[in-house]
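Inverse folding, one chain.
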């Protein structure tokens, strides 16, 4: 009898252990299993591959996908995520710059391309062409974050409401997945978003960024480094990524606070991540792609006779600061000399640099140290035609406007419109609304939006300005 009972107990123990193991495996499979998004073509990986480990992202893919349909009232226009400036290529599961990888469950994540691609249309009816490595001209990261925060604050942000909408995509969760989404994942998404909103409260007291801009280093200061809150404004345009192999030893960011371009790529990710949360192999592949990426050629007709004239004008007027190997190219021009809006410069203080450099990953050499400078960086003008609006804060809509004295530059214009202005070299900037879609009003009278300074070339005769613009199309 006792022998039989012992065998029964052992059998029950084995069954119980198997059940526990199966349950544990199911939880691991649904929450912690990692399957990165990999692509054979480097440009596809740049656009859609996962670099940051996906389980650091708070929103699983299926929940993220349905939010615009559940909460359209929090978007600035119709069109789902495209209303926030994301570019959705036909047949893709995610927009350019958004990855889909598995970390337990399918999760979305942001890639470098979300801030470093632009679209261009020849006319308002044309299909947009996508150019990689360019500074974003439509994506509004602040509005994107605010949309997610607004969703999380809505009383309807519940498992019942969200799961019902996911089912309309004919996506069916297993019983275990359904329970995890209902009992754990969706409540945790809401909690994480509300925590992010609290950490981002500093943005409310500052002017809106608008498309193609961010206040990334105030975000770094306040959200990552825990620096005391103050009233500085660091809104600035995204930067291009071209010709990295030629600029690896040059300073980077608008004020040159990173001593080398090669360190800036991973440094940019350190605003929201640390090396331990980065897929190092994927990052190395994307970094290699960026390093070799060249700016796209100007796609429209060029007057070659004017180009030859403009080349000589560039050599005498602009080359010292903006030609490869120029006397001042790659150096910081003191603010007193360049005269542009100084808010971005003043935002980054020595105390912030010290706090950043004290991070363990910086002291261990995983990230490069940052510094404080006294001006703005003189950079080469690779792909200048695709870098509008101009100056570090994007306050001048076209190159032709930049060659105009500041007092005559547009005080108000609109950003986020991607129809190209061939004559003036930039995007059409006087369209406030098209087909019900409203564009961002940029007012240069708002703090940190100033369009003053950089008077170089403004005194040239009109014919020479026209020739110079033609030459700048070729860079």
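Residues assigned per position:
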């Amino acid at each position: 009898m006792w022998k039989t009972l012992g065998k029964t107990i052992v059998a029950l123990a084995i069954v119980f252990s198997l059940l526990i193991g199966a349950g544990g495996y199911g939880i691991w499979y649904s929450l912690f299993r990692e399957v990165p998004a990999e692509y054979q073509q480097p440009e596809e990986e740049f656009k859609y591959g996962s670099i940051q480990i996906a389980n650091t992202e708070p929103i699983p893919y299926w929940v993220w996908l349905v939010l615009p349909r559940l909460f359209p009232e929090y978007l600035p226009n119709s069109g789902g995520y495209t209303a926030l400036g994301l570019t959705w290529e036909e047949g893709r599961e995610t927009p350019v710059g958004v990855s889909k990888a598995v970390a337990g469950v399918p999760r979305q994540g942001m890639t470098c391309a979300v801030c470093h691609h632009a679209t261009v249309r020849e006319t308002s009816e044309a299909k947009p062409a996508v150019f990689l490595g360019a500074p974003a001209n439509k994506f509004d990261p602040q509005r994107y974050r605010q949309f997610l925060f607004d969703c999380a604050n809505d009383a309807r942000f519940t498992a019942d409401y969200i799961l019902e909408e996911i089912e309309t995509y004919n996506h069916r969760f297993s019983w275990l997945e359904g329970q995890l989404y209902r009992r754990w994942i969706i409540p945790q998404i809401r909690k994480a978003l509300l925590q992010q909103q609290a950490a981002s409260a500093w943005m409310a007291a500052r002017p809106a960024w608008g498309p193609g801009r961010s206040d990334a280093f105030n975000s770094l200061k306040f959200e990552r480094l825990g620096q005391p809150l103050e009233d500085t404004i660091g809104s600035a345009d995204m930067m291009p990524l071209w010709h990295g192999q030629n600029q690896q030893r040059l300073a980077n960011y608008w004020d040159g606070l990173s001593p080398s371009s090669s360190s800036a790529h991973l440094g940019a990710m350190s605003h929201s991540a640390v090396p331990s949360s980065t897929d190092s192999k994927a990052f190395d592949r994307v970094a290699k792609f960026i390093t070799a990426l060249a700016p796209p050629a100007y796609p429209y007709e060029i007057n070659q006779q004017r180009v030859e004239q403009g080349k000589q004008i560039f050599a005498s007027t602009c080359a010292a600061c903006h030609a490869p190997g120029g006397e001042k190219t790659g150096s910081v021009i003191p603010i007193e000399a360049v005269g542009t809006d100084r808010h971005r410069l003043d935002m980054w203080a020595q105390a912030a640099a010290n706090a950043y450099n004290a991070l363990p990953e910086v002291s261990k050499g995983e990230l490069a140290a940052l510094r404080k400078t006294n001006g703005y960086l003189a950079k080469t003008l690779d792909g200048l035609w695709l870098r509008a609006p101009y100056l570090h804060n994007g306050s001048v809509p076209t190159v032709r406007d930049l060659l105009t004295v500041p007092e005559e530059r547009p005080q108000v214009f609109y950003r986020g419109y991607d129809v190209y202005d061939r004559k003036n070299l930039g995007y059409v900037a006087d369209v406030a609304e098209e087909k019900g879609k409203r564009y961002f009003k940029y007012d240069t009278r708002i703090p940190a939006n100033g369009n003053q300074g950089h008077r170089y070339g403004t005194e040239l005769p009109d014919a020479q300005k026209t020739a110079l613009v033609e030459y700048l199309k070729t860079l």
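The first strand starts at residue 34 and ends at 35. Confidence is low (pLDDT under 50) at residues 15-19, 262-267, 269-273.
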